[in-house]
Amino acid sequence: MQPDQPDRRVAVTGVGAVCGLGWGIPPLWAGLRAGQPGIGPFQRFDHSQHRTHLAAEVEAPPATLARVCPGWRRLSIADRFALFAALEAVETAGLATPFDQDDREEAGIGVYFGSSTGGMYESELFFAEFLRDPRRARLSALIPQQVNAPGDAVARHLGVTGPVATYSSACASGALALGAALAAVRSGEVEVAIAGGSDSLCQLTYAGFNSLRSVDEVPCRPFRAERAGMSFGEGAAVLVLEPLERALARGAEPLAVLAGAGASCDAHHMTAPDPSGAGAAAALEAALADAGLAAGTIDFVNVHGTGTPLNDAAEWQALRRVFGERAGGMPLVATKALIGHLLGCSGAIEAVATVLCLRHGELHPVRWDGAADPELPVALVLDDPLPLAGARAAVSTSLAFGGSNAALVFSRWMGPAA
Amino acid sequence: MSEAAATTARIKRLIVDSLNLEGVRPEMIEDEAPLFGEGLGLDSVDALELVVALEKEFGIRIKSQEIGREVFSSVSTLSQFIEGRT
Fold it and tell me: Looking at the complex, does the CB of residue A139 fall below 8 Å from at least one CB of chain B?
């Protein structure tokens, strides 16, 4: 870093999350550290006709949340997740809300969100009710169906008057939203970006992935020999991004630096990933280039790691392409084994997990019995948290169903002197 | 119960059921209290839902132009409107 050049890095100054491990960052980090999956039986809807019967379902919201959110009754579950995570993130960042629309600085705030199904679950309830008795079905259940509803709800509640956009590219949505937020902050389009994702369990995706036989009957086992598919999760995650200099000037503590973002497409198949890993590798390389960091500076990877036979094999190939001989020894953090696949939110919540690992100087483990896959000689972090206090930078990958790939590079915040 | 009172009671029941107002019982809604803005704090989406519910319940058609402040200002004005149409 040249001393006479301004520091254009973008800091993460706040994080918020909700998932099967609980409402908030504290239960998320505690659950991740313990390495115990939050994937189990769930009650949201009748799954008796499906092949599988597990999900990482979120428990009922804290009673206080409804009281602070006007219009609560019309919000979908995905909207409610998003609001909780956003409120936690802006509070951590030390930003007072609602933002003042007359304040020029506060007018420069935008929301960049990812979701794959928005309020689909509530629409499913409406349609079932409608088929039973059209007179009883409530039309307002359809209003939050749109995939942009969670991001819009966040903007509305926080008083955001800058750009508000939702990215929907299946499992890459949250990461793409973060990439867009990073670009917006760097370009000066916004002063602060509220970026994240939200998705709730719904029958469409549960039935859809099961019909493709992509779902494991036990909690997913990324990179293991017997892996047989993904596990479902739900929830939301939000990160507050702002220029590092702005954060320091207002006395905010950066949690990490979002150093770079990259994206690509496999252009291969409607559902299967390119087995060569070329597409995923391209996204990783693009993110590293954007960050101005060499692959050698990456100390761990938060993998996409869904646990499907095809994803993990392709992802291993991508890691080999990018990290060469270091690929086999690169610590891999497989968050989906604990919280399931949050679909449109996954890129965002795994970004939060990556920030937490950097911040705490340790990588969260996953634990299960079973053999490693000899075809995938990876260094998964297993059983106990791996201390890595000196970790400089990490990559989080999101490789979407349909071929869209996104990668985010986070670097550890090492204090103003660095 | 007079017919007018019965209509008023039906409207209050409809408001609570069709708008998913938690913690509100029909008997808590005053005849003259404002429905929109203050009072119950209903909004334009609630108005549309209420129209659908009223049409189904009373077997009437309500034109878009009729969904206005006068008719929908309170349970009492709604009741008079319905009585005039049935």
Answer: yes
